[in-house]
Amino acid sequence: MSAAPDEVEPPAAGTRVSGTDRMTAFSDGVFAIVITLLVIDLRVPEYHEGELLSGLLGEGASYLAFVVSFVYVGVLWLNHHALLRLILAAPPSR
């Protein structure tokens, strides 16, 4: 049976709905946008035939900064998920 458009059906039996699901989805989106914005600054070097490797090596600092930033944001994202798991596992306060 489907609910009317203005009514919300309760979750199916056995489905766990967490109070942090929306926050988790939002923060995942924010981290995805941050990682995407990191790529915008990467440029394909201008090169002549046979000089691609030297062109890429010339952009090495930019690529290294991207990799370090990507790893840093990835670690922040993993730590954020670990923190949310701890929050969900904590007993409710009185």
TrEMBL record:
A GO cellular component entry from the record: membrane
Membrane spanning stretches: 23-40, 60-78
UniProt keyword list: Ion channel, Ion transport, Membrane, Potassium, Potassium channel, Potassium transport, Transmembrane, Transmembrane helix, Transport
Signal peptide per UniProt: none
Recorded catalytic activity of this chain's protein: K(+)(in) = K(+)(out)
Coiled coil residues, start to end: none
Pfam families reported for this sequence: TMEM175 (PF06736)
Compartment(s) where it occurs, according to its Swiss-Prot or TrEMBL record: Membrane
InterPro entries: TMEM175-like
Superkingdom, natural source: Bacteria
Main location: membrane
GO molecular function, one term: potassium channel activity
Topological type in the membrane: Multi-pass membrane protein
PANTHER family: ENDOSOMAL/LYSOSOMAL POTASSIUM CHANNEL TMEM175, ENDOSOMAL_LYSOSOMAL PROTON CHANNEL TMEM175
Family: Belongs to the TMEM175 family.
Protein name (database record): DUF1211 domain-containing protein
Organism: Micromonospora orduensis
